[in-house]
Amino acid sequence: xxxxxxxxxxxxxxxxxxxxxxxxxxxxxxxxxxxxxxxxxxxxxxxxxxxxxxxxxxxxxxxxxxxxxxxxxxxxxxxxxxxxxxxxxxxxxxxxxxxxxxxxxxxxxxxxxxxxxxxxxxxxxxxxxxxxxxxxxxxxxxxxxxxxxxxxxxxxxxxxxxxxxxxxxxxxxxxxxxxxxxxxxxxxxxxxxxxxxxxxxxxxxxxxxxxxxxxxxxxxxxxxxxxxxxxxxxxxxxxxxxxxxxxxxxxxxxxxxxxxxxxxxxxxxxxxxxxxxxxxxxxxxxxxxxxxxxxxxxxxxxxxxxxxxxxxxxxxxxxxxxxxxxxxxxxxxxxxxxxxxxxxxxxxxxxxxxxxxxxxxxxxxxxxxxxxxxxxxxxxxxxxxxxxxxxxxxxxxxxxxxxxxxxxxxxxxxxxxxxxxxxxxxxxxxxxxxxxxxxxxxxxxxxxxxxxxxxxxxxxxxxxxxxxxxxxxxxxxxx
Length: 479
Ligand code: ADP
Ligand code: ASP
Ligand code: MG
What we know:
Elements (H helix, E strand, L loop, with lengths): L1 E5 L7 H11 L7 E5 L5 H13 L3 H22 L8 H20 L4 H25 L4 E4 L1 H4 L1 E2 L10 H17 L3 E5 L2 E4 L4 E3 L5 H12 L3 E6 L20 E3 H9 L10 H7 L2 E6 L8 E4 L11 E14 L5 H15 L6 E4 L3 E7 L5 H8 L3 E14 L9 H11 L6 E4 L5 E7 L3 H13 L1 H15 L15
Parallel strand pairs: 1-2, 1-8, 2-5, 3-5, 4-6, 8-10, 9-11
Antiparallel strand pairs: 6-7, 10-11, 12-14, 12-15, 13-14, 15-17, 16-17
Helix pairs in contact: 2-3, 2-4, 2-5, 3-4, 3-5, 4-5, 7-8, 8-10, 14-15
The chain binds adenosine-5'-diphosphate, aspartic acid (ASP) and magnesium ion.
């Protein structure tokens, strides 16, 4: 079997969902399980409705809900000549959502648990629509409720799946359907605790759902269908010269996802690595294109780095010790505090008396900062970003870091924290968020763009007294 996950833009309207059926059909002999995200923008809009309801702006929330209802009903109308019984659920869900928003407004409070409940509606709606659309096109699609199969802890808004019950339930629920030639359709992103309370796997979590399902069933491959032609040398929205990576190893791709390459949820590769299942990133608007293959072993990159990732919304917390703890005790206390608050430091640099930690702004709660203040003087700087250059073979290459920081210095970009070597496959550093587009563009030009490298090649050619016609053979290629 295979898993095919369609992201928000790949199910955003009737045309996108029509394409989904065209992409699924030729793969029917491979027994696909289809996983879908909410239609593009729906999760954001659900979140803002819930927040509005909690902030005594119920009317604004209900107005947005009417827009959401219209959008879903218009897609149904365009896709299905006669809506079948499965779609009665869509109406029920929309009414239920209205009740939930009223409840939030009455309480004037939005807890993480209620947030997950509200956010689950996006995928609940889209999965029903996709199931009906596939069915109407002669594909034997059957809706499977992800909340019955993916079991997580109760860490609402970024719940962690519990491996054993999840694997068991997925196997028990999906295997018989696949054997019967059915195409199970599941909502990505959402799950439930063992007691059946809705949870979500963190923003962008449908990729993770697909990988969890793929690992549980021993899929032949996992396909992530999205709006770009694969994993690219950097975010194409930041740099128009970004190019598709043909094949990339699990380790490099995981590092990219962790450091902000939104194309994959950071946890996606954990289940894939566990079962050694190749993951393909493909463009649902150009389904015939080859995309990117992520697998255990990849050919060595011909460029120094494989890719550049950028993660914005970072906070740098500097803690200065009053010396009474001594260097060891101080660092231990800082990391214990981070652990207690469930915070992962993305980048750390230390001296004897101080430590700087770059954290996701969402994680750096006031509780954490309050506890760190017990250990020393705390200063915070916001609007920071981490840039991470990923490349498996940078270790042992002399002068790579110098070239990176030279490039930034030439663009007058100030670097706050630097780390190389934690995973031995990346160089990471913190800059101002506003400098990200320029930094990425400059670094991409320096390390990936053939024209830039060609000038370097000509210098070598002159030295060797070879004709410059060698240059094309030495062109930078990605892969
Ligand atoms: P989906 O809704 O299909 O899950 P996402 O918006 O979550 O899609 O992820 C796709 C987006 O990821 C792309 O539109 C692109 O802007 C962004 N992205 C960031 N880094 C990369 C990268 N290295 N390669 C490809 N896309 C990237
Ligand atoms: N719909 C969810 C989100 O927007 C999950 C996903 O699309 O992967 O975060
Ligand atoms: Mg995504």
